[in-house]
Amino acid sequence: MAPNTLWDTVLKPFFQTFLLDQGELEQIQAAVDWQAGETRYALPPGITYPPYYQSQNFHGIEGGYLTTTAALTYDPITRHVLPPNEDWVRQGLIDRIGGSPRQILDLGCGTGTQTLALKKAFPLATVTGLDLSPFMLSLAEYKADQAHLSIHWRSGLAEATGFPAQQFDLITAALLFHETPPAISQAILREAFRLLTPGGQLLILDGNQDSLRQQAWLTNIFEEPYIQDYAQGDLRAWLQDAGFEAVQTENHWWVHQIAQGRKSLPVQSPTWRSSATETVGSAIFA
């Protein structure tokens, strides 16, 4: 763990003392079958946790997301660090979805908060949440069961999902890209492009890169090993390089950013008719 971060010395004790409901955390801790979830959401054969994920601490938690502590504390902390209101911030992604998608994939779904919101917004859609952490997925499954929502949960790499090409018409990623190295972020975009049907949409909710470039001190609040690399990047350019069209990035509540792009529809060659054919056809139907 990085020593003497602001999170470790000031904010973590503050959260533990004043903002985390220890009784609620203990109740969830007892309700979730973590051991069964660790088995159920083990990575597929031949896939291992990548060094960029396994070797880093995230949010001041030793062991990062591969711990029950990370899963238990993620939601109550996130409620307080997505200004002005987590529900409003996440709703911004929902509001920018075009049409009525039927096959939705939420990459890096974590504890499933955005995934559940997608299922509520599109109840007829088949919704899948994918994440690397069996503990985050175990809590996501518990939350979906409590909400009586049918969602498919899968463990795997966002940059190499193993899903067939062109399976989804909407792919989302909320608060994922600032937690991956830029090379992995760009690989995730290429994978999303492969997975989308022609005309399919990708939506990304994350920190505002322009704001983060100007506020490097924010890195000291949480232990975020890749956030400054993310801040120096250009999500719009990454989307275009991955093949997306109609690329847009918008500021969202000042400190957040929503980016989107579409996979182009195939170009259809026009059917040409000769003037002789047109003449014959006109004579026949005259």
Could you walk me through the main structural features you see in this protein, from its secondary elements to its overall organization?
The chain is an alpha/beta fold and 286 residues long. The protein has one domain (1-265): Vaccinia Virus protein VP39 (Rossmann fold, 3-Layer(aba) Sandwich). The chain has 13 helices and seven strands. The protein has helices at 6-19, 22-31, 34-40, 51-54, 68-81, 86-95, 113-121, 134-146, 182-195, 209-214, 227-231, 235-241, 275-284; strands at residues 103-107, 126-131, 152-155, 168-174, 196-207, 245-252, 256-262. Helix 7 (113-121) links the parallel strand 1 (103-107) and strand 2. Helix 3 packs across helix 8. The longest helix has 14 residues, at 6-19. The relative contact order is 0.13. The model is unreliable at 274-286 (pLDDT under 50).
Present the secondary structure layout.
Layout: H1 6-19, H2 22-31, H3 34-40, H4 51-54, H5 68-81, H6 86-95, E1 103-107, H7 113-121, E2 126-131, H8 134-146, E3 152-155, E4 168-174, H9 182-195, E5 196-207, H10 209-214, H11 227-231, H12 235-241, E6 245-252, E7 256-262, H13 275-284
Parallel strand pairs: 1-2, 1-4, 2-3, 4-5
Antiparallel strand pairs: 5-7, 6-7
Descriptive terms for the model:
286 residues, alpha/beta, Rossmann fold, 7-stranded mixed beta sheet, 13 helices, globular
